[in-house]
Write a structure and sequence with these properties.
Blueprint: H1 2-13, H2 34-39, H3 48-56, H4 60-66, H5 68-90, H6 94-101, H7 105-124
Helix pairs in contact: 1-3, 1-5, 3-4, 3-5, 4-5
Amino acid sequence: MALVGLGPLLVGAGLTPSADGHGTHTQMGLPSCGWVMAFDKPCPTCGMTTAVTHTAHGDLVGGFLAQPAGFAFALLASVAFWCGLHGLVSGAGTVKMAGGLFKGRTWWIIGGILLAAWAYKLVTFGG
């Protein structure tokens, strides 16, 4: 659990957040978003890497403004890291407990957050 949480934060810490609020993923050799190129609109995950990168650099406001769901993901990743580390050191069953959180309506809440964040990105997208 600690490594799963730490991974995205380490990647984000190694990148420079794009000033456009999206496109940071291209620093990893990934192509530009086809959705943006085809429709000049953000895809549902637009700005996630940028938000994680801002957050990993300690810029919480920049992370939220880039993509609220990406910011929430980065915070969840850091909580997962610390809880996993705590479980590793103390022997507490944090991984088992965390697995119980992702049942039933949790997935509907996550879906709602992603849709709301996409709507935010559609309104604030600069192309």
